[in-house]
Amino acid sequence: SERFDLVKKITKNSQNNFLFFYCPSKIVFLYKKYFKNEINGLDFSDVSFHPMERQSLINVIEQSKVIIDINHSSQVGLTMRTIEMIGAKKKIITTNIEVVNYDFYRPENILVFTNSTSLDDINRFIKTPYNELCDNIYKKYSIESWIKQLIIL
Question: How does 78-108 read in b/e, with b if 16+ C-beta sit within 10 Å?
């Protein structure tokens, strides 16, 4: 619901944006648009009701400088997108304030978007180069490490 409005705010003055809005159900989209008035400005034709194919998604991530991550308001913890972008070595703009409590957090790599974040803050963040993390952090958040921890637990 509020995700579309946040994406509009974040990308307001940006150029060369690739935006992909996915909704798993046409009925849910129509309900939210016409009965709840939650996604004004988003047309039916702007939404995909089929997830992006894996290779297309990989291509988009590879070509992107920054990925936007808007977590659900009732979500606890990190989104999978956050972990994936660490592995992909991509900058992230996220609404998840909890990300600052993790060892991979670097303000030049992750911008926490709040109501006080300005377009200048976003532009400055986008222009700042990605700061590589140490190998131990990349390994810690790898699928291999996750599986090992799961088996040990």
Answer: bbebbbbbbeeebbbbbbbeebeeeebeeee
